[in-house]
Amino acid sequence: MDGREILDYSSALKWLASLDETRVKPGLERIRQLAARLGHPQQQLHAVIVGGTNGKGSCCWLLEDALCRAGIRVGCATSPHLHSVRERLRLDRELIGQAEFAALAGEVQQACREMAEHPTYFEVLTAMTLLWFAHCRVEVAVLEVGLGGELDAMNIVDAKVAVLTTLALEHTDWLGSDLGAIARTKAGIVRPQAQVITGWEVEFQRYIPQHAGLASGSSAHEWATLALEQLGVAADVGDTRPAGRREQIRNVMLDCAHNPHALAWLLGRIPKPEVVLFGCLRDKPLDEMLRLLPPEADLLACAPDSPRARSAAAVVAAARKLGRRGRACDSVAEALELAGERPTLVVGSSYLVAEARRDLGLPGSDES
After folding, report:
1. DSSP 3-state assignment of 140?
2. Angle made by CA atoms 340, 336, 359, in degrees to the nearest 5
3. Cβ 131 vs Cβ 6: under 8 Å
4. Strand order from edge to edge, sheet including 344-347
5. Omega into 80 within 30° of 0, i.e. cis?
6. Phi, psi at residue 265, to the nearest 5°?
7. What is the tens place of the pLDDT at every residue in 188-245?
8. Which pTM does this prediction carry?
9. How large is the angle between the packed helices 220-231 and 56-69, nearest 10 degrees?
10. In the chain, what are the helix, strand and coil shares in percent, each to the nearest 5?
């Protein structure tokens, strides 16, 4: 699985690709073994860990921005990426360089070779992230949970502040079939000494294990503000926003909302679009998401650039069963051309948003 030695950034990317980003294998044994071989970098970090269903990335970006402006050396890890895997590892708001990324990958690859069971794609990236932040001696590490919480690779970190953003049904095959089970899994990032910040309703806060204190907020801005207070940092939270989150370019808005909870939140806060360019992965509740879209908007369906994508034809067929018309497009570029100058929303998948950003020539879309 390792292939050739990692000599440069290109070979690092090839090695990562061989690990198959879509392979999910929850559990902490592999990442713990890998971290041990790397000198336990997670033990050197003063961390904020951010879990929940939606709003995690926005909360991380707001925290990163505020900490930087306060003069604090901050490492920030978020996922997934839109254009370059280097987006997942940032130091003081800057992406890790290609040479540094390759060097880290080589170090982690060597450690993986000593293990009986090879770590997954996300476990490798988690190890690279924690190792880099330790090397850089960051003062605060802001870490977004990948999938769930309790068995997510990032959960080897004993964070001083744990943020649990929102709670909704997602990834039920892995996390549980009801909100209680999902809450219990996501709350697994909390340690007894952690200060907890949450947007969960009171009835689900009972699933949060022993902790040092709890505060509630209702938005990414409030969660970031409360986290700064717990860190003892006097800084104001700004209005910075990650790429692909309510990102506006001329008549087009792009948003990575990829589940009903996120989609409903988004549609309740933006002007109604005349055109919706929509696509999603096969594991998403398509009918539920289609019902949320403005019925009067023209629906242009595209398949996201992923092996897990639902076809545009399948989206249109599902829409017709719900009594609405739609048109299947061969590409995002075709759909954007059909939308013309009308107010347009691109939504449903980060892969779809990434393709639209490239077509529109937005900043960062040419990163590799």
Report:
1. strand
2. 130
3. no
4. 247-249, 252-255, 344-347, 275-278, 298-301, 327-328
5. yes
6. -60, -45
7. 999 999 999 999 999 999 999 999 999 999 999 999 999 999 999 999 999 888 899 9
8. 0.94
9. 50
10. 40, 15, 45
